[in-house]
Amino acid sequence: MKLIYNEDERMLADIATEFLESKSPVAAKRALRDQNSDLCFDPHIWQEMAQLGWSGISFAETFGGHGFSHKGLAAIFEAIGNNLTHSPMLSSVVICGGILQQLAKTNDLSEQHISWLEQIISGDKRIALALEEGVRHNPDHITTTAVKVDGGYRLSGDKVMVIDGYGADALLIVARINDITAPISLFLVPNDGRFSHKKMSVIDSGNYTSVKFEQTLIDDESLLTSTLVSAKVNAAKAALDVGLALGRLCLAAEMLGASSTLFNMTIDYLKTREQFDTKIGTFQALQHRAAKCFIELELTRSAVISGFVMADKLHSLFPEQLDDSVALLQVIDDISAAASLAKWKAGQLSDMISGEAVQMHGGIGVTDELDVGLYLKRIRVAQMSLGDSDFHLTQYADLTA
């Protein structure tokens, strides 16, 4: 297993870095925050990202994608973390697109829903996952119900922390049919005003909403799948696990990128800040702390790239393996374990480096005029999104036991 980028992936990383530094630097993030932007991203920049092919990077050519390795996503999200760029890449492309593609591969997706997948890949449509129901990530704790009625289903329940929920063209809703003890199902519902959104205030100034379903009527075609693959897992749960694993890997890569930039900013400061007519970077105690940060950065990079290499198993599954619930479940478990390891390690790294950056910068490290604070806030939200360190430590132990 090669834990480095190949030539094509390095080229993609260079293009992503150059594009985001010129079109969506940290100053753009600050401007969107100060303007109280509801979307929290620039739609024109997003369209340029889609035109560069980023929204189709890891999708099969059958659906209009490019069939690139998942490590390509690592390169893009590391650049996103470097520049604190907010876009629908995570919510719509990686998570929801990953879920829909997995369902399409197992023939659990209608032509209508495949059309949604193709429009996600082209960047023409955006979908947000409505999953979370509490303050902590728990994808198994789903109490939202869809009761079968004439002409469709009636949704009841509350969702929180819907990433990029404001302005999304549709919601991908996780619910249980008729009863909270039933297996989970997935519903793709156009965001046409039939349910109420409320913007949530989060410290990274991102686009998050809460959604309330009050006997909301949706049609039969909204149901993606609830087909049982085996007695232990259904198609909806398997696809959700794939989407969440890919999302966690991309968050890990983003935290790696943010931590790398924070580390470089701190090293530059150590080289210029003087105390007692001496550069503080010459103090041995600070050198040792910086060296430890560098070592952890490289260890985390290996864990993150390893997770994306594992995700490429999704590309190499044979048709008979997609029909074999045991083989499919094992691959998904392997990817989920690798994603948990990567996100746990990236969370530990970013916690250490963000803390060191604030301390080594001194009092100015927590002022708004310095970008350190913006990175710190984004890192804290990314650490909690799709599971914190405790969640992933437990999940990794369970999946590898």
UniProtKB/TrEMBL annotation:
Source superkingdom: Bacteria
A molecular-function term among this protein's GO annotations: acyl-CoA dehydrogenase activity
Acyl-CoA dehydrogenase/oxidase C-terminal domain location: 243-397
UniProt keyword annotation of Oxidoreductase present: yes
Cofactors, names only: FAD
Classification via Pfam families: Acyl-CoA_dh_1, Acyl-CoA_dh_N
Residue intervals of the Acyl-CoA dehydrogenase/oxidase N-terminal domain: 6-123
Annotated keywords: FAD, Flavoprotein, Oxidoreductase
Family as reported in the entry's similarity comment: Belongs to the acyl-CoA dehydrogenase family.
Matches recorded under PANTHER family: ACYL-COA DEHYDROGENASE, ACYL-COA DEHYDROGENASE FADE28
Protein name per its UniProtKB record: Acyl-CoA dehydrogenase domain protein
Species name: Shewanella halifaxensis (strain HAW-EB4)
Lineage: Bacteria, Pseudomonadati, Pseudomonadota, Gammaproteobacteria, Alteromonadales
